[in-house]
Hints:
Blueprint: H1 2-5, H2 10-25, H3 32-51, H4 57-79
Helix pairs in contact: 2-3, 3-4
Amino acid sequence: MAGATRGREPGQYGVTVASVSAIIYGKPVDDPSLLTAGIGRAEAMAYRDELGEAMTDPDWSEVECRLRRAYWSLKAAVAGGEP
């Protein structure tokens, strides 16, 4: 998926991720929790892509934390509430 993010800012790509999630889960595309989840996931990918082969265990832990926060927001959006 890294190729899909090249040349795009995480915020911009995150909106795309949120839009796809809205379609998948039948939620409004402007749901704040979906936007938070999409942008959070895109930021985690950008962090990973920026470091590339230099990723260390602490860097992977950072990616994991970012993804967990993003998925909590997604869970909130799917459940219909705020994170």
